[in-house]
Specification:
Elements (H helix, E strand, L loop, with lengths): L5 H23 L23 E10 L4 E3 L5 E6 L6 E2 L4 E5 L2 H40 L8 H41 L1 E3 L4 E6 L6 E2 L13 E4 L4 E8 L12 E5 L7 E8 L4 E2 L14 E8 L12 E7 L5
Helix pairs in contact: 2-3
Length: about 325
């Protein structure tokens, strides 16, 4: 039996097997090019609408977001509210450790009590000094009481009056220190600035609350509150469309992902400052290097399908062509 030739018989077989395997691999790894139904229906202008301008927006409180912090750092010892609670103006939200402030108040009150005793003693000294001075002054015989003694008794009265003034000044100083300690104690309880809804709570009892935690410099605010009655929508209009938009008219919005749900909103105001675009839709064709005019609209009362921070698509009427 003759030996097989590698280059003439075995190598062509290997090549043929490789071609077959490559064809099978290519056929089985091709992407699926069949067309599927759209998962999400894009937002469309309302039926029957004339020229409109589209814009992306965000639902926000009518007061805008109020980021709450504390100007006195410390360990949070009590939370008075939870997410979703409604609060009134001046209602406490949370408090930080106030033991030092309470001790300062007790110390100031004790000092005031002691100094008021000094005031009483000074008033008694004045009464005694005046009686003694009157007694010496009533003696007409210069051989019994010298003129020097009369002047000395008058000086005692003046000295007692001065001591009373010092005692009263000390009481006022201690009272000012008490007021300062009471203000420091009040600062350790953070209160709502207005009637609002608690939207977010980022602090817990026992955690340390840093001073100045109002959300600046990428610091997470300790709490976020806002007035949600009514809710507002902030729509961004591309700067290229500003001249075409009919500012002052109502608009139609739809929640992101629910294009069939349309809500009419009423115009509130147009922000006077054109700002860089910040509300992004994550569209591949979206331009982010533009500035936008922000239009504020109010949602009708009783609209329960919108939440603060939710993205919406809006359609604003365009100006009529002349």
């Amino acid at each position: 039996m003759s030996r097989l030739n590698f280059s003439r018989q075995i190598l062509p077989i290997i090549a043929l097997v490789g071609i077959i395997l490559a064809a099978i691999f290519i056929a089985t790894t091709q992407p699926d090019r069949t067309l599927d139904a759209a998962v999400e229906t894009p937002a469309t202008p309302p039926a029957g609408a004339r020229a409109v301008i589209a814009g992306a927006g965000v639902v926000e409180p009518s007061s805008e977001l109020i980021e709450v912090g504390t100007d006195v750092g410390g360990v949070v010892d009590r939370l008075f509210v939870a997410t979703g609670d409604r609060v009134g103006p001046g209602q406490p939200l949370f408090s930080v450790d106030s033991r030092i402030a309470r001790a300062a108040i007790a110390e100031a009150r004790a000092r005031i009590a002691r100094l008021r005793t000094n005031v009483t003693a000074a008033q008694t000294s004045i009464t005694v000094a005046r009686r003694q001075a009157a007694l010496y002054a009533s003696v007409s015989d210069p051989r019994a009481v010298s003129r020097q003694e009369v002047l000395t008794r008058q000086g005692s009265v003046d000295d007692a009056v001065a001591q009373l003034g010092v005692a009263l000044a000390s009481v006022r100083e201690a009272q000012a220190q008490l007021n300062s300690a009471e203000v420091d104690l009040a600062r350790r309880t953070v209160r709502a600035s207005r009637a609002a809804t608690v939207l977010q709570v980022n602090v817990r009892a026992g955690e340390f609350a840093p001073a100045g935690g109002q959300g600046g410099n990428n610091i997470t605010p300790l709490m976020v509150i806002g007035s949600t009655d009514p809710l507002h929508v902030r729509l961004d209009i591309d700067e290229n469309e500003i001249e075409r938009v009919a500012v002052g008219q109502g608009a139609t919005i739809s929640p992101r992902g629910a294009a069939g749900q349309r809500t009419r909103v009423t115009f509130v105001r147009a922000e006077p400052l054109v700002v860089p675009k910040r509300s992004l839709t994550n569209s591949a064709s979206e331009r982010v290097d533009v500035r936008v005019l922000q239009l504020i609209y109010a949602l009708p009362a009783g609209t329960g399908s919108y939440y603060v921070g939710q993205q919406v698509d809006g359609f604003v009427p365009a100006k009529a062509r002349r």
